[in-house]
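LOG
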Amino acid sequence: NITQSIVVSSLLLMCTSTLFCLFAPQVVHLLGSSERLKPLAVEYMCWFVPFSAFTALLNSGMFFLRLDGSPNFAMFCNIVASVLNIILDYLFIFPFGWGMFGAAFASAIGTTVGALMIIIYLSRRNCALRFYPVKFSRNSMKLMKRNVGYMCRLGSSAFLCEVAIACMMFVGNLVFIHYLKEDGVAAFSIACYFFPIIFMVYNAIAQSAQPILSYNFGAGNPERVRAAFRLALLTAISCGVVVFAVTTLFSAQITSWFIDSSYPAHDLAVKGLPLFASGFVCFG
């Protein structure tokens, strides 16, 4: 099942990546870019999108590693990818002067290295969860189709969550470019950069609870399932309230991480970030 999920998702992402790169200007325009921002967005997309299969493998692979009993190595893979991205971002953008290409290439290298670490781990023979030879017989293809159907049904809730985030960013770009032009988009992008940090906290709560919930559901322990669910829900809501409070109190400081106070987008972001953060409680 793990091999099938990686193969199918990688093939799907390779197809969509090819389409996005071939029609990058049209996609960027559809996502709400102005004419001034379009060349930068296209340049970033063309260098980052081809590596999306590795990004997906890094995200799903960490869950596989946790299921195999190696949560520390899963975290290490993510840390290596993140730190490498930060270091290369600085090197490529400032000393090398590569601009948007450098930013995209740094992100691509970081996620690729993290994904390759997961591939090496899953290739070892002493792992309970490891790659399995893909068979192309008619019966094997029928079984793969059935399994992919199961995955799609089980993953539909997580998919809807990701679609909601994508829609939020899509609509936000269109609204801000219409009313506040590039400064509005820049302010909104600060919120969108800050948002993944919050998302990672909630994702950690959900993915940590998931194996516990699954195991106890399968073992027929409904009381433990309910107890674990209540604990996860309470943790998520508590984190949402705390993050909302911190964002409201320190909006100016958080905004200064991303942009200098001399730019008009800074003041827009300072005013807007608490409003944006009010949704963190429900999102959690």
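LOG (cont.) second protein
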Amino acid sequence: MKYIILLCDGMGDYPIAELGNKTPMQAAKTPNMDELARNGEVGMAKTTPDGFSPGSDVTNLSILGYDPKKYYTGRSPLEAASIGISLDKDDVAYRCNLVTLKAKDNTYDIEELSPSLIMDDYSSGHITTDEAVELIREINDQIGTEDILFYAGVSYRHLMVWRGGKVKVKCVPPHDITGKKIGEYLPKGDGDAILKKLMDVSAAVLHSHAVNEERKKENKKPANCIWLWGQGKAPQMPKFENRFKLKGSMISAVDLMKGLGIYAGFDIVNVPGATGYIDTNYKGKAEYALKELEKKDIVYVHVEAPDEASHNGDLAAKVKAIEDFDDLVVGTVMEGIKQFGDYKIMVLCDHRTPISKKTHTADPVPYLIFSSNKQGKVDGAFDEATCEKGRMFNPAHNMMEYFLRK
């Protein structure tokens, strides 16, 4: 038996007037997911346990079969693992976004942190990795110390490691505060003065950097500040193979997912052209997944695009991302996986990211499970309304064991 999980990040949503009170899943043309749903099983999964924020770290940990109450320590240690950073037991990793802050006069000309500044873009206009690497290297050279180090990741997503640092501080994800003044969302708690100082000084470092000067000439948003959040220490969790006796691979363009795969003991597969955005190599991810199934028991394919579109409030991009996922990922897998004989496919999102909110919610998410040797009969398409009539997994970390039953 071969198993594949196709994760469409942030796909779930709420009805939208512009779509005739349909959700993006209902409005999108998704013949492949609809076919799997009609001949399989659908339902809902509560991927965010009570008391947790609905981040992709928590929700994907749940989907992989790990109880966040036992194993969750924070987002950034997972991203550290992805870029090869080994954390000592007292080290604290922080996500370091390159963001665009805007002043009251609607300009980007800032040199220091001020509570009145507005979070204009959590991704600095989806800055390229090459540009971002230059900026993070400059930040590390200028404000890094023996105990505080900055490491480059992908696009706007980077890492800070604080040796012997503080972890009991409230930090807000920048994508949760798009369009809002940052004052009440700055770090609060143990070590907050150091974190705010780093963010403040970063604005001065980035202000006149050549990369930003060039971006402004091209009418692109400058990366004019860092934003620190998602802190945590290295988790201790058992390998997936030890728990379920299956060897797996993880396919994602996102460091968070790669790091989660590393801690679970999965092989990490990097697909050319995979960006974590709407221009990602959808079909390549599916083709690489099928290749991995020739030697592995289970493959986890993560596509970030709908989530990014939601954070940007881009309805058209979200619908297109869902349609591309259905056509190029699900469709390619459906055709190619037949070679293996017995197989199971699970399709779901990790959390909802409603366009109206531009951030994640803790609502249960829709899922489908299709088995090559057990045909179901579902009345309806694959969407939130149809899935609400099915089984509810609460908590969601029990769903993996159910999916793997033969």
